[in-house]
Amino acid sequence: MSMSTKVKGFILPDDPMYKKHSAVLLACIAAGIKEMPKETAEYFDCHPGEVSDHLLEEKLECTIPAHEYSADMVDGYEIIVSEIPKGVHKIRFYNSY
Predict the structure, then answer these.
(1) Cα separation of 29 and 53, whole Å?
(2) Cα 46–11–54 angle (5° rounding)?
(3) What residues contact residue 49 under an 8 Å CB cut-off, 6+ apart?
(4) How far is residue 9's CA from residue 59's CA, in Å, rounded to a whole number?
(5) Over the stretch 54-66, which tens digit does the pLDDT of each residue have?
(6) Hey, which residues does 11 pair with through a beta bridge?
(7) Looking at residue 97, what DSSP letter applies?
(8) What is the 3-state secondary structure (H, E, C) of 3-72?
């Protein structure tokens, strides 16, 4: 049986940047606009034409760049603080089997 370790970040729904860009995205959906502004697409890490409400939930859980670390009799991950996406409130490390 093998085990893998994952690292996920979580953004609160009341984060100011999340609120700003989610409002823009929802306005585009409500108005039937097929392409969101470039800044909002960059925030959601997608193509401007990818106007969908699934982006809202996906953004609340984001990838944290984790770098493998190995030393004498030690294996693990390092998180470089400057690489953590803005707005991340919580980081979760978990193992799955």
Answers:
(1) 8
(2) 40
(3) 34, 35
(4) 10
(5) 999 999 998 899 9
(6) 88
(7) -
(8) CEEEEEEEECCCCHHHHHHHHHHHHHHHHCCCCCCHHHHHHCCCCCCCCCCHHHHHHHEEECCEEEEEEC
What does the DSSP 8-state code read for residue 73?
T
Do the beta carbons of residue 91 and residue 7 sit within 8 Å?
Answer: yes
Please tell me the total number of residues recorded for the chain in this structure: 97
18 contacts 75 by C-beta, under 8 angstroms: no
Residue 72 contacts residue 46 (beta carbons within 8 Å): no
The pTM assigned to this predicted structure is 0.73
Q: Residues 29-54: pLDDT tens digits?
A: 999 999 999 999 999 989 999 999 99
Asked if 12 contacts 86 with a C-beta cutoff of 8 angstroms, the reply is no
Amino acid identity of residue 79, one-letter, is I
